[in-house]
Amino acid sequence: MYPYSETKISLYNSKICPYAQRVAIALEEAKISHENFEIDLSNKPEWFEEVNPASKVPTMRLPTGEIIVESFLMIEYIAEQYPESKLMPESPLDKYKVRFFVEYFGTKVIPLMFKLIHAYKDETVKAEAYSEIVEELRVVNKKLLENSDTGPFFFGKDFTIADIATITFVERLEMALEITNLEIKSVSGLERYNVWKSTIMAKPSYISSLATREELMESYKKFMK
Ligand SMILES: N[C@@H](CCC(=O)N[C@@H](CS)C(=O)NCC(=O)O)C(=O)O
Predict the structure, then answer these.
(1) Percent of the chain with pLDDT over 70
(2) Cβ < 6 A, ligand 1 pocket
């Protein structure tokens, strides 16, 4: 039998994983007391397959024994199970906007991060990836502005799963840029994005759920050949 809490939610987590960080932030923001089980992804415990046959983090076990997987569905569950957290807006249209923004980020921005770190030694691909990243982040900036011109969050003053599901990849994207000696700090057209990003990154739930720079760097090495 694998380790779990009898009374609280058990979170099988890895601080280096951007998907798992989504769930850790959501639990913290919703003030859900839970027990954290840190999984070493390079040396997973044998019992982990009993919890989740796919052997992936994040995985959550409810005190009832129910197992919940897939980070975006998990944070939707947390938001809906604990509505007082206000992590999910109420109207169907706003819910649609959350899902649209997250989908956009997942299909347009995240793949570019992988493109950059997989092929950073090829100067042509690197330059191409960089200009595509700038272009897509400007679209993100525009989407943030369209939704709330004052911010700082996607829904203005309300911090929601639209922010949680996307910000964890921003850290990794910017790290990929740094490692490949590229930077976007002085790029124009990202003003709203920069405020959004730095406000979330200063939140205690974000800081406490993130691995150290060294741990993140170590996890990147396997992608960079
Ligand atoms: N679609 C999944 C992705 C989860 C995922 O890929 N997690 C990675 C770590 S970031 C993992 O556990 N991989 C298994 C492994 O490294 O063996 C989710 O959103 O939860």
Answers:
(1) 100
(2) 17, 19, 41, 55-58, 70-72
